[in-house]
Please model this.
Amino acid sequence: MHYRLLLFIFLFTTLLSCQKRGRNTQNVFCYNESKGIATLDPAFARNQGIIWPTHQLFNGLVQMDNQLNIKPCIARRWEISEDGKTYTFHLRDDVFFHNHYLFHNGIGRKVNAFDFAYSLNRVKSPEIASPGSWIFNNVTDLKAINDSVLQINLETPFPAFLGLLTMQYCSVVPKEIVEYYGTDFRNHPIGTGPFYFKLWKEGEKLVLVKNPNYFEKDKDGNPLPYLDAIAITFISDKQSEFLEFLNGKLDFISGLNPANKDELITKNGKLNPKYKDRIYMVNQPYLNIEYLGFLVDSSLNKTSPVNNHKIRQAINYGFDRVKMMKYLRNNIGKPAEQGFIPRGLPGFDESFTGYTYNPDKTRRLLEEAGFPEGKGLLPIKLTTTADYLDLCEYIQQQISEFGIEISIDVSTGGTFREMVSNSKLEFFRGSWIADYPDAENYLALFYSKNFSPAGPNYTHFANAGYDDLYEKSMYETCDSSRLNYYHEMDKIIIEQAIVVPLYYDEVVRFVQNNISHFEGNAMNLLNLKYVKKHIADDIDSR
Model:
């Protein structure tokens, strides 16, 4: 009874901690999820709002570090066969599910390979209809050899497969708990993570509490996590969220709301000096590239000027990306002046020179294409959504100085996506956010066997040399050799000017000064197991 009373008091103070006036001074990390959370079942972790809390509750075989390297998690080691088709994972023997009364004596039982076989086959199952089932489209067999060994066989080699397994879909769950709750597992999650589920009042508050039996330690051998709890609120209004943060009731906010952009950051993308004593700003690469795509399939686009690669190159050289980022994006993001592979991925090549502003080259290319000063060149229609109209108008204006006429058509989201997917647009605004930390995620967009609408090759680019490099990379198990293939493919994309890379995206986070070890990576993962909250005024260790 004494334990239950203490637990009640702790939960009560946790719930109130993010609602007090002034700074939250308990060892509870508070953040807001403005779009709400639909489920805590990792099999349905399809968006950031779900991924962030499930990452605190669950673990998988492997995990990513801050540089997107694949590291052990519940699997302590693994082997990949020489043909790249068989993955054998050897599990730790000190990982336990969170306590639950359905387990013997209410104590969480040890995780074994059969749990992983169940969990991954569950995601793969059509009956579950998990949005992550595509991860296992290439899997022919998935089985536990014994309690500590799991084996996965692929139909064809896919070196990015380990990266797929870092996705939250691939978390381990206990069969007996899942089957007991059925669809209600969404709000009765039992995992192995650094925090366990305690309370969820939908639309108001979600509370996760420190797992005292968590298996991971810090580099000094101290147990993780450091926080006592996580409290998540669901304030839908971004302005109200911002005010809660300024009042110290939230420990961080992610991203920039246009209404508060000029209040928080300067024109050069730095934190407004008036806030430096209260909060700090974290910029990091985000695996998203914003670009304009050309439909280069002459069978679909017979008379368009974009069929001429010199015209495509001329457009790429014809506008200033550096000024575009400064004046339209407050330097949040980097001008895409290298390749199509974005910053933050191991395949990004800093030394590679792509397209920079060069008016002389634009004029020369137009002349070589037979359209000096743009004379005789048919207008080109660029289709975008309203969110990116400012970027498109900027490019339109700069390109017009060379006699290239671009008309802009603004389309709604659903209609726009349908037209892009069915290759109906000669020139379109595009973006690509990585699902997994491998450059193949981006290079697959230009593989000829991925033609839309069946695949993501919306430009219908077809190049035998490119396809050969792509297929060779799939059979290359050596990371450095595979990266060489990736770089060669990236060069072909840029040389042929299949796209107009605009900028490499960034994640911007604003954090209270008493929070330290607030880590993230280019997948915009929220990793709270290392976070420390300094209750006193001493924040020097940040």
